[in-house]
Structure formats: C-alpha cells, structure tokens
Amino acid sequence: MSHSRALDRPGRLVKNLAVSRSWVERDAAVVWHGFTQMAAYADNAPLVIDRAEGRELIDVDGRRYLDAISSLWVNTLGHHVPELDAALVAQTAKVAHSTMLGNGNTVVIELAEALAAVVPVDDPHFLFAADGAVAVEQALKIAFQYWVNRGDVGGGLSRGRGRGRSRFLALGDAYHGDTIGSLSLGDGGVFSAAFAPLCFPVVRTPGYADPGWAAKACAAIEAHGEELAAVVIEPLVQGASGMLCAEPADVRALGEACRAAGVLLICDEVATGFGRTGTLFASEQCGLRPDLLCLGKGITGGYLAMSATVASGRVFDAFLGPDLGPQTFFHGHSYGGNALAAAVALEHLRLFEAWGVLAAVQERAAQLSQLLSERVAGRAGVAAVRQRGLMVGVELAPPAPGLRWGRRVCAGAVERGVRPLGDVVVIMPPLTVTVPEIERIVDALDAALGEVLGESVGG
Ligand SMILES: Cc1ncc(COP(=O)(O)O)c(C=O)c1O
User: Which of the 8 DSSP states describes residue 145?
Assistant: First the structure.
C-alpha cells in the first residue's frame, strides 16, 4: 500500500480549502447527517470522502485517512477488495434484487447455508433485513410471538398484553439501535431522551461497568423469570457505550440463568460479529448458543446494507402452522435478503477462511494491546484502556467536565490521518490492518493525547 502524504508529514498539509469547502457547502445544503447537529456540521471540519483504497479513505482533496473505526464498525477486510468487487459485479449480471416474501433467491439460499455452518445457533434459520436495528427489532417481535404461539402470553390475541412472558430484560449501558423497539432496549441517555414516552419499559439490570453485573442480572432473571420473553445482551463488549467489557464466564453464567428460567436469550452481535473480538462471534468465547442472534455491520465486509436475525430450530418451529394462520411471522422488509448484498456476504465468508483472518486479528490485537500498554495506558489523563480483540476503547479522564477531551484527541488523530470517534476514543480498525498501520494508529493517538494533555497542563 502506498504511504499517504498525510502520514509522511502529519498534520502539516494545507488543505485545498476551495475543493473541500465547496463539497461541504453542497453537503450541508441537502444532506441530513445522523447523530449530527446540522447547525454546526460545516464548522466541525467534516471529511468528504470520495474514494478508498485498502484501509484508507481518501477525501475530495486527495488526503488519506486510516479508517481506524472501520467506517463505523462495518468494514472488515478493507475497502475496494478486488474479490468482493468481483462478486458484486458478477451478481449484477444475474439479478440485483428479488423479494424474499414468499419467494426465494439462489444466492440468498447459498449465503444462509454458508452462515448456518458457522453461527453459534442450533439448527439456524435466517430472516434477512438491511440494518442492525432491524435485526434486533425482528428478534424482539419473534421472541414475543414465540410465547404467543406457545400460548404463554396474550400479545393482544387472547389474554392481553402484560400477562405471561411479555417483558424483556436488557442491561445498563446497552445500545441496540435507533428504531423504537431497539431504542427501548437501549439504556437511554441524552440521545434518546426525547423518545422516552414512545419506548416500552424493560427490566433493567446494570451493564458491564458494574463488576457485579452478572450476579445482578441472574438474580433478576430468577425473580422475573415467569414474565420474561427474552434477555437481550451484547455478548462480551458493550460497544457504543465505550467498549465496556465483560468476562466470558460472567456472560456464560447469564446464559445458564436464561436456560434455567426458560427465558429466550437474544445475543446482539451486530457490532461484535464477524471477527471483531478475535473469534467469528463473541458468543463462542462465552460458550453461548443463543435462541436468537442478531447480525449486521460486518456481514458484507462493510460493502452493502444487510442484517439478519438468526433463530434456533426450537424458536422457528413454534411459528409453523396452517398457511397464513396466526402462527405465521407477519413481518418483512422490501430489501431483506438483497441479492447483491448476499453475493458479497458469501464471498466475504469465503475470504475470511481463505485469508486466515481470525489468526491475523489475534496477532494484531496482541500487538495493539502491547503498544497501548506501553504508550497510552497509565498516562495522566487516561482512565482506562479496554480491549477485546480489535475492539478498543480508551477512556479519558479530563480534570474538569466540559473540556471535550475526547473530541479534541480525535480531532488531533484525524489531523494525523487516523479517524477514531467519540468521547471515549474508539479504535476499531479493519481486521486486515497491518503491523505498520497499528503503529500508525498508536502514534497518532499518542501524539494527539500529548497535545491535549500538554495544552491542558499549560492551561
Ligand atoms: C450492538 C449493536 N446493535 C445494533 C446496532 C444498530 O445497527 P444499525 O446502525 O445497523 O441499525 C448497533 C450499531 O452500532 C450496535 O452496536
């Protein structure tokens, strides 16, 4: 891979302001960016990306940025992968999309067969959609109707909502997406406060930041067992809340408590799935075989929008009955099981195996861990470094509130050609990240931290 100009002379390039300013103006005039205050958008020096190569994004000025957050955790093998490009082009010659409602498509069948061999779910069945939040939404509805079909909850069909197994248990600090159902499972906060009146209540026990989280969750499962439809977790890592990490044995204990109470377990692996934590799925490290598994993000290597809710045979069987009878799962999305996405996802799975991606993730994760412990952890201003595989959160400890250290460190890192994100500095590079690229990420973080800490000390 060619070295970038930004890398050669970090932070010293003068942008061709005219080009990027004109794109930012056009952008701000017509595009509404999610999780972004549009009144401030243009002033926050947004990157306008034009193309990409390997692990680098290239903006309209030709500047290169190492994609250290994998384009919001979706990219796995890098950008512009010839094999994935070819799979996409080949599928366009067949069919781009045909509906999955009541009909099939060859490449989607092939993908489901390939996934069935690797997901940690017994006798798996795949309901495809396009976004992670929708995979979660589908899992919620399936779990709810599972008990309806079994006669254990009213669900509006007979005994009325609120009786039997109709509630969900979710953890503190949880994030499962932005649709109303997934938002209800999420642990709120300022971003979703406005929607609180629309959300349904859940049984909430502490998240992974509390060392006693598992014991508390297990006790709640025992106490509420009879009324719970399902327990929903992000196994091993609560990503969006700042890479809060759990011990595999604790997650396993929660799975056992679900089994003992007869409650369904939903593992949301939208973020942790497809190799991020060092195994193909984090559930494997925790010894879990969930009843429902949510997949998204990395499923197509970051190429196309695809997600899936995976149901175990036991769950799936509860939906079998007379044609169009009440057991049917009346839910579906126009683009669920898109053939182009399926073709890329199928090739992506093949490459995972062929390239030995998981072994590489473990090696690079060890390298990153070593460098972070030498150069970042334990430094004044750094409260904690949390890591599972190639999912890393560096929690900063500003001396006073409101200093926006996270944002300033990230801005400094972007100047050096790396793009982390958020207040806890998140590092989540593509799984094919190289030895020098890991060094480049830590160099950028190190230098950006130095600047912010230095500024702060000097006032
Ligand atoms: C654990 C988890 N679940 C669900 C989602 C939502 O996925 P999407 O943004 O594709 O709707 C995310 C997104 O970050 C996530 O981290």
Answer: H
Distance 160 CA to ligand 1 centre (A): 31
Distance in Å, CA 270 to ligand 1 centroid? 6
The pTM for the full model equals 0.93
Q: How many alpha carbons fall within 13 Å on the CB side of residue 376? A: 29
CB 107 within 8 A of CB 94: yes
* pLDDT tens digits for range 156-181: 444 444 568 999 999 999 999 999 99
Which contacts (CB < 8 Å, 24+ apart) does range 407-410 have? 408/448, 408/451, 408/452, 409/445, 409/448, 409/449, 409/452, 410/448
Q: Is 438 in the pocket of ligand 1 (CB under 6 A)?
A: no
Tokens of 454: 């230095």
Is 269 near ligand 1, meaning CB less than 6 Å away? Answer: no
What is the radius of gyration, based on Cα positions, of the chain?
A: 23
The neighbouring-strand residues paired with 386 are 393
Share of the chain above pLDDT 90, in %: 81
Rounded Cα distance, 77 and 222, in Å: 42
| Mutate-to-test residue for ligand 1 from 176, 267, 300, 391, highest number of ligand atoms within 8 A of CB | 176
